[in-house]
Amino acid sequence: xxxxxxxxxxxxxxxxxxxxxxxxxxxxxxxxxxxxxxxxxxxxxxxxxxxxxxxxxxxxxxxxxxxxxxxxxxxxxxxxxxxxxxxxxxxxxxxxxxxxxxxxxxxxxxxxxxxxxxxxxxxxxxxxxxxxxxxxxxxxxxxxxxxxxxxxxxxxxxxxxxxxxxxxxxxxxxxxxxxxxxxxxxxxxxxxxxxxxxxxxxxxxxxxxxxxxxxxxxxxxxxxxxxxxxxxxxxxxxxxxxxxxxxxxxxxxxxxxxxxxxxxxxxxxxxxxxxxxxxxxxxxxxxxxxxxxxxxxxxxxxxxxxxxxxxxxxxxxxxxxxxxxxxxxxxxxxxxxxxxxxxxxxxxxxxxxxxxxxxxxxxxxxxxxxxxxxxxxxxxxxxxxxxxxxxxxxxxxxxxxxxxxxxxxxxxxxxxxxxxxxxxxxxxxxxxxxxxxxxxxxxxxxxxxxxxxxxxxxxxxxxxxxxxxxxxxxxxxxxxxxxxxxxxxxxxxxx
Length: 495
Ligand code: ADP
What we know:
The protein is 43% helix and 26% strand.
């Protein structure tokens, strides 16, 4: 035993222990005075009071405010009386009681929770009440802030028309805001299940867009896709969804959280724009074809004519018509691609020949660059001849557009394992690393002085990458700014 406590009476030991206990006072059951018999150090600290100031006094003498403020069922007098009447412990989970802070001279807002335990005497009559309080101001404030920020967030998402949802992976529990039901054609009060919501997406889109996106999200932590949905009334709508996956410490996915936005209006605009491009290019194609035929007819007729101006003028007219035709075919392909109607017609051919033919064609309009071709032995691919020709011709025309007159462009073909790789290298303006990914996106053009003076629509590389993807190939670029660029694409060899 501790030598210092050796000489203490048991009452003293209990007093010392009581005074060290968290936030407690012992109150006599002498209705209506409720004399305070003892208070712990911590109680004095949290209530900003002194032992001399409260011990020996009636509870409401020590804390007069408690008598005057109206806090109904949580008022101390009611609680103490209930403990005495019922001889049962009474808990008050949360109540407000302000404290006068002597240091600042101000009243401070505080929240508390307390328990009130009846203490019986030998005759089993209630003698005291042990009242223990805990200051929970910080927890209450944190909760209030959380509720406030949640409601701010809810107001913001509702204003933008966004729906939010959460899927718990282990339980499959799916929770969402009422807006989600509305986006899928239900009333805001309806509570469709995940299966009902998914039934508005076609099986094909589920397999090709939705499921792959979620599978990928389990690896990368993110998902985003656009998909068409059909409401129960038969109308078509478009949604855009994106979100994140939350993982635990062992990298196991816990839940997916996402937002859904109805993008039907902007999609309809896009479809209208797309239809317009398709129609305009189609209409332009017809007169252009006959123009080309007339130019060729004229060239035939004037074969014997030795006027160099006429021969030259017809040659140039023919080249310009070809250039215009390739632009129009580009737009037609773009609209086919957007509406899912771009189909590839496969045939087996030697890629060396296709590249050589495309270079010869490019040389018809190339007056300023030297194109070096490094072919290899017969290399068969199973591909769409015309579309692959467009890809090569686009890479060549870019190399010419974005490199100085007089410079050299090198085209090479290599077989690497079971793939053939075609590269087009120029020594032009090059592409910054941050633009290298983006140039394959639709309508993307790098913003700089050089580009502004060069005509283009930003669709060539987008089409090229879509065409190469449809051949199970890859397309990419390696470049340093001001040092030139090499564009590569690779395709599986025909077996
Ligand atoms: P366009 O050339 O019609 O603008 P593309 O889709 O063919 O469209 O190319 C997209 C963008 O990529 C171009 O605007 C240009 O900024 C950049 N780019 C393409 N090829 C090259 C190249 N060889 N060198 C430098 N920049 C290039």
